[in-house]
Amino acid sequence: MCRLLIASVVVAIKFYDDKFFDNEYYSKVGGVPCVEMNLIEIEILQMLDYDLVVKAEEYEKYMEHIARLYAPIHSAISANSGTRVSDEGKPALTPAKAVTSPPTVEMTRERSEIGEKKEAMCDQVPQQ
Fold it and tell me: Tens digits of per-residue pLDDT, 83-120?
């Protein structure tokens, strides 16, 4: 499970970020041999048919499923902590809105600024 998780995170990072570390770095962080990381990454991409975009309908479907699974746990926690549960038994957390339109200039600028900050932070990390 750990191998699948780290490889899934690597695929997501590569999809969302323009600048990222190589698989050798991620394999060291995840404790997975680099060759195996490469193979798992390829297998994930092939299983997804290289389609990494999540449609809004699919996102909502899984969020509702997770909310139903989480509701009993949330109710038990709320009962012990005194917080209120919604009438539908849904968790108090609301899912993030799925992006259904292309990024705006502002979003692109924000991502660019975040990328520059991350790059500056990475430059400060001592290289081994």
Answer: 555 555 554 554 444 445 555 556 566 666 666 665 65
Residue-by-residue DSSP string for 10-71: HHHHHHH-SS---HHHHHHHHT--HHHHHHHHHHHHHHTTT--PPPHHHHHHHHHHHHHHHH
In 55-126, the DSSP E strands lie at none
Task: Measure the N-to-C terminal CA separation of the chain; round to a whole number of Å.
Answer: 28
Closest among 63, 2, 73, 66 to 32, alpha carbons compared = 2
**What is the rounded radius of gyration, in angstroms, for the C-alpha atoms of the chain?**
19
* Residues 33, 105: Cα–Cα separation, whole Å: 39
